[in-house]
Amino acid sequence: MAEGFGSARPQSAMIRRLNLPDSAEPDREGLLHAPSAARNQKPILDALGPHLPHGGLFLEVASGTGQHVAALAAEHPDLRFQPSEPDPVRRRAIDARTRDLPNVAPARYLDACTPGWGRGLRADVILTVNLLHLISDAEMAVLLDEAAQAIVPGGLLAIYGPFLRGGQATSEGDAGFHMSLQRQDPSIGLKDADLVVSVLQALAFAVDIVPMPANNLMLLARSGSKPGF
Known about the structure:
This protein is of the alpha/beta class. It has six helices and nine strands, in the order ββαβαβαβαβαβαββ. The protein has helices at about 35-50, 65-75, 90-100, 135-150, 170-185, 195-200; strands at about 25, 30-35, 55-60, 80-85, 125-130, 150-165, 190, 205-210, 215-225. Helix 1 (about 35-50) runs parallel beside helix 2 (about 65-75).
């Protein structure tokens, strides 16, 4: 077992009780369903598909409802998927959603904002969706540093979500969302894309920025590669 995976620990930094739009609710089958995950699922699959390896370990950080890992695993049966999530209720929901997918391991506890989880873990792909704006700058720094340790040379770190550009929101919706997050916790909110790219480059990643629907971005960071992969 790699360090960072294990049984739940108290007060994970990644479990904040926030009032968020499109919060996950049980669907007719009793599975957790997030409308935003359903909307962005195909764009994420399309953006990732050409860059994924044939075989290897795919770690999703903060898998949430499991909608993304289930869709990716169904489309890429040659990859081994490891969902992770600090919330035990969501881990059970992920396992329920992926139980018929033989290339998906049971969801594991992972607080990616805690130092040390990257040691001993060798992932070919790491994905996180809509997480950075829910954690502080210091927690983001830990997450990115640990991901750099966990990923194999030439591996892919993919980060999806809303971002500021040049310190500014690019839409009224993003501006309002950023303000609502900071009212609930001043330490969180949308991160500036240039800042995140700078941190990734300092960690020896080459980064491509892919525009996505609804003003979102996908940052595709390749470990130890030249820009443009």
